Every structure is written in structure tokens, then in C-alpha cells.
Automatic annotation (TrEMBL):
It holds the Pfam family V-set. It comes from Lanius ludovicianus. The lineage of its organism: Eukaryota, Metazoa, Chordata, Craniata, Vertebrata. InterPro entries: CD8B, Ig-like_dom, Ig-like_dom_sf, Ig-like_fold, Ig_sub, Ig_V-set. Its main location: membrane. This is CD8B protein.
Length: 192
């Protein structure tokens, strides 16, 4: 099985970058190992994808359709630190990347690095001087801001409410069947 472990320290936690850029993910190991595996959890494809395995001699074994041009593993210092370099980035590379070592037939996973690749990065807001006016500035309260977007947005709660409603409707026939079965048993016991 897969599980996160304190024996592996992975940094950074999140990377936001542009198409065609390259990035580096660092994995520090506090355990003797035979090499480092790198995996990607793809939200879009809902699966773990094996990228590359690098043994302690520096020999790399690549997963299906994974190329050396895109993924390279570098040993940072004396088998205790490895970095995954990903180049020619594209939005299809989005996902959470994990370094991993094998220990007694289990894979110990790092904490994961979430990679977001966009064609264009959002620009920081411009700081322009606005003329000072005597009118009071209408402040947006927290509740108003939350109602626009966030955990309580209609995009979240409408499908959630619909799902709960469907679940409850699915339980009605089951509850009715159980009621009828209980009644039948009750009648059978009291007839005897």
C-alpha cells in the first residue's frame, strides 16, 4: 500500500508555473534505500502514474510513455537527497508528484508536491493612486464575500444538496421494505 511517511521530506508543497517552463522537486531521505521512485497522481485520470525510478548508482528506469527529455532525477548529496526535474511543462502535467522508497514490500510516500501549469499566470493587482473622496467606502463584509465564492457557493451546495436528496430517495424503498419485513415477522410471532 501507499502511505505518507516522515522518513521522506518533500519540498515544495505547491508549484504554480507557466507552460514550457521547467521545475525541480526535492526529496530528502532519512532511511537506507535502494533508489527513489517518482509517481504522479492525476486528478483528471484518477490514477497514480509511475514516472521514473532512479537507483543509488544513478541509473534511471522510466515508466510507459515517460521520456528522459521531460523527467530527470539528480542525486543531490550522498544518496540522502534526490531532485526530480520536469521540463517542457504543459497543463497535462498538472497533478500531485510524490517521491517514494520501497521498504519491506510497501511504498513509503513523500508528502507530495502539487503542480499547476497554466498558459498564463494571473497578474498581480496594479497599485494605482485613486483620488481621495469624502464619501464613505462601502466595505465588503466577510459574509458577503463568502456568499459570492468559496465553500458556500451555489456551485458547491446545489450538487451536494441534490446528491443528499438522491441518497435519501434511494433509502425510502429500503426503509419501506424493512418496515414490511418487520411487520410480517411481528405478525408471524403473534400468530403462534
Amino acid at each position: 500500500g501507499f502511505y505518507a511517511n516522515l522518513l521522506l521530506t518533500q519540498t515544495p508543497e505547491h508549484i504554480l508555473t507557466q507552460t514550457n517552463n521547467k521545475i525541480k522537486i526535492l526529496c530528502e531521505l532519512k532511511k537506507v534505500h535502494s533508489g527513489v521512485y517518482w509517481y504522479r497522481w492525476s486528478q483528471e485520470r484518477q490514477r497514480f502514474e509511475f514516472l521514473v525510478f532512479s537507483n543509488t548508482l544513478g541509473k534511471a528506469t522510466y515508466g510507459t510513455n515517460m521520456s528522459q527529455d521531460k523527467f530527470r532525477v539528480h542525486e543531490e548529496r550522498s544518496h540522502s537527497s534526490y531532485s526530480l526535474h520536469i521540463s517542457h511543462l504543459h497543463p497535462s502535467d498538472n497533478g500531485t508528484y510524490y517521491c517514494s522508497i520501497s521498504q519491506s514490500s510497501e511504498l513509503l510516500l513523500g508528502s507530495g508536491t502539487r503542480l499547476s501549469v497554466a498558459d498564463a499566470l494571473p497578474l498581480p493587482p496594479k497599485t494605482t493612486q485613486t483620488p481621495v473622496s469624502k464619501k464613505p467606502v462601502p466595505w465588503i463584509t466577510k459574509s458577503k464575500a463568502a456568499s459570492r465564492k468559496g465553500p458556500c457557493s451555489p456551485l458547491v451546495w446545489i450538487p451536494l444538496a441534490a446528491g443528499v436528496l438522491l441518497l435519501l430517495l434511494g433509502l425510502v424503498p429500503t426503509a419501506h421494505r424493512l418496515y414490511r419485513l418487520r411487520r410480517r415477522l411481528w405478525l408471524r410471532i403473534h400468530r403462534q
